[in-house]
Input
Amino acid sequence: MARVFCIANQKGGVGKTTTAISLADAIAKSGAKTLLIDLDPQCNATSGLGFQPTNSHPLVAETAFSGSLIATSTPTLQLLPGSRNFADIEALTQNDTLKSMRIHQQLLDEMNAYDYVLIDSPPSLGHLTQIALAASTEVFMPIQCEFFAMEGLVRMIEIIKKIMEQKTDKLKFGGIVLTMYDISLELTHEVDREVRNFFGEIVFKTVIPRDVAISEAPSHGLSIIDYAPKSRGTRAYIELCMEVLERG
Ligand SMILES: Nc1ncnc2c1ncn2[C@@H]1O[C@H](COP(=O)(O)OP(=O)(O)OP(=O)(O)O)[C@@H](O)[C@H]1O
Ligand SMILES: [Mg+2]
Output
């Protein structure tokens, strides 16, 4: 069965999409068959890899993913692109149990062709994030090293726990990764201490440094590994990838 990671945090701009793209590419480059699903209507994971969002959302189309999949420059990494189609997003976010079950089943069926699936989710705890969580085996939470880092996390954890209880198959906390880490800032160290005290072992040893190359990569449509292979950002995401694979 595929390991399915939902990259989630209801806070915006904490590094979800960057982590989804970079980790997916690092895992794929290790040789594993990997799928990146863009479930965020902002479609940053799609454009960040240099592709266009689709006109209609693959999950609403009720057809097999295969027609929508995009091959990336890493042969073992495929992308299921996102869509900004307003009607489709509406359809996906409606609280329609039957539709949710159909999408859930389709995700489960199609994801099994992969070793790893990463789902990039929007900055909310709404229906789209819940679809992503319900289809996942592990939740990954990037936390930005800033003052409000922990705010709202309790609500997020409540939602995750609720889904864990509802799900018959397992969903576990895959891990927490500290992003935009700046060792020269006292605040970074404070957040680091606070997060590790609160969450303990599930916080990855690897931290992702603030690195300008990471913020430049998506404008070139490349993952950080392809854009700046020798950068600190690349090193950090490869290290994170190794930690993730070891935890499996
Ligand atoms: N380690 C880093 N160093 C420098 N810039 C970074 C780093 N990680 C992310 N960024 C930049 O910070 C911004 C927000 O990152 P990203 O889009 O990954 O966050 P997000 O959580 O997906 O946002 P949203 O909630 O809007 O989906 C982007 O411009 C990204 O390029
Ligand atoms: Mg994002």
Notes: The domain at 3-247 is CATH 3.40.50.300 (Rossmann fold).
